[in-house]
Amino acid sequence: MSGLYLALITLMLAGGITVVLASTNFPNGGSGFLGYDGSVLKAPPIRRPGLANSDPAFFRYTIVVALLMFLLVLAHLRTRPGRAWAAIRQSESAALAAGINTTLYKLWAFALASFVTGVAGGLLAGQLRYLYSINFQPQDSIALLAVVLMGGVYNLWGAVIAGLLMQLLPALLQDWGASSNWLIIVFGIGVLQVLTTAPAGLADQVPQDLARLGRRLRPQSRRARPTDGAAE
Fold first, then answer.
1. CA-wise closest residue to 129 among 55, 69, 64
2. Do 32 and 63 belong together in one domain?
3. What is the pTM of this model?
4. Structural domain count of the chain
5. Are residues 183 and 201 located together in one domain of the fold?
6. Are residues 58 and 148 located together in one domain of the fold?
7. Contact present, 149 and 187 (Cβ < 8 Å)
8. Which distant-in-sequence residues (6+ apart) come within 8 Å of 78 by Cβ?
9. What confidence tens digit (pLDDT) does each residue in 61-107 have?
10. Distance, CA of 155 to CA of 42 (rounded, Å)
11. Domain encompassing residue 97
């Protein structure tokens, strides 16, 4: 499986795991994996690193770790794995003909993505201090998929744009007093727009649109200059 089918199966698996975690009350305050303690107050908060106990310090700590993760991914993209992934994305058959071990590099991509996601989950746990399965709904994964597609899946800046969309849009709707259902509508329109006009997302579309606008404005400014000189 690949592409959209792989994404759908992954989301279905995430939904199934959410049901399992909810039925087993995990994570919880009891002993062992299935131990359940009905008193939420007895569950100890998740500890933060010693140098990032306060909220401002943990915010700075998160930024540093995020930058390290970006550098790790960038190092992969600029070296042999990145070239192999680009070849597989263009044509898996051509990559196989060129001698690229597609199975190895696909597993490599999954491992790298899982590692970065695990680190992000650890940071989220430190920020929330308490984790419950009800906090991670399948629709949140769908929203994440939508903003990633809108931001751009072929560019690291797409992840930055996706993060801004995921955090800024709900905050703006809340400030404007709008219903949270509008967020789903906006994300749905954004995904349709990306799939129809900009497969590489906003990270690729916006620079191209700005460059195209600049090329259109330049001839107009050049034609306006001789007219101004003649008028003088």
1. 55
2. no
3. 0.69
4. 3
5. yes
6. no
7. no
8. none
9. 999 999 999 899 999 988 898 898 888 888 888 888 888 888 899 89
10. 44
11. 51-129
